[in-house]
Design goal:
Layout lengths: L1 E6 H10 L2 H13 L5 H18 L9 E7 L6 E9 L5 E9 L5 E2 L5 E6 L2 E6 L1 H15 L1 H5 L3 E8 L14 H4 L4 E2 L3 H14 L7 H8 L8 H9 L10 H15 L6 E7 L5 H14 L4 E5 L2 H10 L6 H7 E3 L11 E7 L18 H8 E8 L13 H10 L3 E7 L9 H10 L16 E4 L3 H11 L5 E5 L16 E3 L3 E3 L23 H4 L4 E8 L3 E4 L2 E4 L14 H6 L5 H16 L3 E9 L2 H9 L6
Parallel strand pairs: 4-8, 8-9, 10-14, 10-15, 11-12, 11-13, 13-14, 16-23, 17-20, 20-23
Antiparallel strand pairs: 1-2, 2-3, 3-4, 5-6, 6-7, 18-19, 21-22
């Protein structure tokens, strides 16, 4: 997706004789269905005006391609400006330009991090050259046109208000300014940028390369589980971008400085696909390489089992267990016996531990007590059982009890659901989790489809399973008969759809086992993991009547442990139980419907509910 596209001549006319920011805003609204803040309009006007001065060089061809706000596939990120053409040898080139209005910055001791005034405060943010390089790397990684058409991506950063001062251009950042040259304020700097552009764009392309990038097939996304071997060898499997990089470097500094006398608790809030687990594994590797002692912790066993299966033959089971463990293994831990603990999916933590839920006092308290630095990755909208007690407030309360420094962070960069924040907002709206402005999927580039039958939806997911990265899941509204009788059918819908739950023998590996495509997964076998395409069967526990969502816990299978005890609490007239169960059901479907990086297909067992979803699609771009 490209918000604004033109050749050089058209761009200069829009800049010189029209309000360029108004034209881009109009196209932004038409493309995305949303407006931008006044600050971004001012940014467009100022930065694009300076870029117009750069492009007026007569040696830069008038028909070179100009794209503003080009969307990077699979992410929520947009590139400020992309210029296209060919060099003297006829090679296709796209120059990625990161534009900043900064006037001042300070050097930090962190990798690729500077301090500058943004968002009405001095903040630590990524260096513009790192940002340009990371965006270029993502574009190379996700767009087949870069490979199939031989397009070279050349990043740079232009800070047109910033006088060279030895800070932003410090040798500390040379690893990234070498990869993405930095151009600053002044005529000499502008000439340098013009020479840089002319090196790669001698001849115009009349936007042909832009169209190739725009229409390029999205490459298969890299799965975390498949990249573990490289990560544990400290290979750069994923490029951290923007807030991911900022949070990562901050957490490295926090964990390294923490001690028994100065304990730290970090809380990292992030929605689906914001890179929480990627950050968690990267942190585990980096901190361990620094000689610190710690573990990756998760309540849900499925991710750990998948990781261990992927690492078979790479590390021993003993070494794996020394690095990865469950949240219930700290009941008798000695105080501060770990330098760090990284707690993924912290919203799934329970109060008690043990098979019968009768051990320990509180998992959050035990984790904080066992570590000098405890890092919690959390998304409270993914609390999917009545026993899930991991909330930011609970973490803060136990951190205060230990007198630990509390460090909050938020991750916003989106890598799942086609990188669409709009899809997530629409999902919250349509599931009635919270009100948002996203009433339809109009303008949202994510493959969401509604099917008239479970079998047609499942068949469509099978077609998408070319690389074992598509699965079907459902709410737990059907009994698991095949657990005892492997010939029995579990999910039976109508006369033609008959499927079994999970893998009867080893459900924890369901998401990566090839035969799983024929079965249906549940929340426990997919939470914390991802696929390219997810198919979701919405059962009778979630229906819509006259446009209003109604949940019914009694429609779930009687052996569903996620809402265990709700009937007795109803009998006891507990005033909170209905609201709690309602949220569990909605969060379950929200979590299931956000497992797909590229698409989500759904079928609803209730006809009115199916039409409700279909009516809220809108005209997608």
């Amino acid at each position: 997706m490209i918000v604004y596209e033109a050749d050089k001549a058209q761009f200069l006319r829009h800049n010189d004789f029209d309000d360029i920011e108004a034209i881009i805003h109009e196209r932004f609204i038409a493309t995305t269905g949303h407006r931008v803040a006044a600050a971004e309009l001012r940014s467009w006007k100022a930065s694009l005006g300076d870029m117009a001065k750069v492009l007026r060089d007569p040696d830069l061809p008038s028909d070179l391609g100009v794209a503003i706000e080009m969307h990077i596939p699979q992410t929520s990120k947009r590139i400020d400006m992309t210029l296209t053409g060919t060099d003297a040898d006829g090679c296709k080139n796209a120059v990625v330009v990161e534009l900043k209005q900064w006037e001042k910055a300070l050097v930090t001791d962190k990798d690729a991090i500077v301090t500058t005034y943004v968002g009405r405060a001095n903040r630590e943010v990524v260096h513009p050259s790192y940002q340009a390089w990371s965006y270029a790397t993502l574009l190379e990684g996700f767009n087949d046109a870069v490979y199939d058409s031989g397009i070279n991506i050349k990043p740079c950063a232009y800070l047109h208000n910033y006088q060279r001062d030895g800070a932003i251009d410090s040798i500390h950042y040379i690893a990234y300014t070498d990869k993405a040259p930095l151009f600053l304020k002044g005529k000499e700097e502008r000439v340098r940028l013009q020479e840089f552009l002319k090196k790669y764009i001698k001849y115009g392309d009349s936007k042909k390369i832009l169209y190739e990038l725009r229409d390029g097939k999205i490459r298969p996304s890299k799965a975390l589980a498949d990249s573990l071997k490289g990560l544990l060898k400290q290979q750069a499997e994923f490029v951290l971008i923007d807030d991911q990089k900022e949070v990562f470097e901050s957490l490295i500094a926090l964990a390294t400085a923490a001690s028994s006398n100065r304990p730290v608790v970090a809380i990292i809030q992030g929605g689906p696909g914001t890179g929480k687990t990627v950050l968690a594994i990267n942190l585990l590797v980096r901190l361990t390489s620094h000689g610190l002692v710690g573990k990756y912790v998760s309540k849900n066993a499925a991710p750990r089992e998948v990781y261990q299966a992927k690492l078979t033959g790479t590390i021993t089971k003993t070494k794996f267990s020394n690095m990865f463990t469950g949240s219930g293994s700290f009941v008798n831990a000695t105080a501060n016996c770990f330098d760090f603990l990284i707690v993924d999916e912290a919203h799934r933590l329970n109060e008690k531990s043990g098979l019968y839920g009768n051990l320990g006092e509180h998992q959050v308290k035990e984790l904080i007590g066992a570590s000098k630095c405890t890092i919690f990755f959390i998304d409270e909208d993914q609390r999917v059982t009545l026993n899930d007690v991991g909330t930011q407030q609970v973490i803060r309360d136990f951190a205060s009890l230990k007198q630990a420094k509390i460090q909050p962070h938020t991750l916003e960069s989106q890598f799942r659901c086609g990188g669409s924040d709009g899809y997530l907002a629409w999902l919250d709206n349509i599931l009635e989790i919270r009100n948002t402005a996203n009433n339809t999927l109009a303008g949202i580039q994510y493959d969401f489809r509604v099917f008239d039958s479970a079998e047609s939806m499942h068949d469509a997911i099978i077609e998408k399973n070319t690389n074992n990265r598509a699965r079907v899941v459902a709410g737990y509204c059907w009994p698991w008969r095949s657990k005892k009788d492997n010939t029995a059918d579990d999910i039976v819908i109508g006369a033609n759809y008959k499927r079994q739950w999970n893998l009867s023998q080893d459900g924890s590996l369901w998401i990566i086992s090839p035969e799983s495509i024929e079965q249906v997964g549940c929340i426990h076998t997919c939470q914390g993991l991802e696929v390219d395409y997810i198919g979701v069967i919405i059962g009778p526990d979630f229906v819509v009547r006259d446009g209003i969502v109604k949940t019914d816990a009694f429609k779930r299978d009687s052996r569903d442990r996620t809402i265990k005890g709700f009937k007795s609490r109803i009998k006891a007239q507990d005033p909170d139980i209905l609201g709690e169960v309602d949220l569990v059901i909605k969060n379950t479907y929200r979590t299931l419907m956000t497992r797909g990086m590229k698409g989500c297909f759904i079928y609803c067992t209730d006809a009115e509910t199916l039409e409700y979803f279909r009516s809220r699609l809108g005209a997608k771009s």
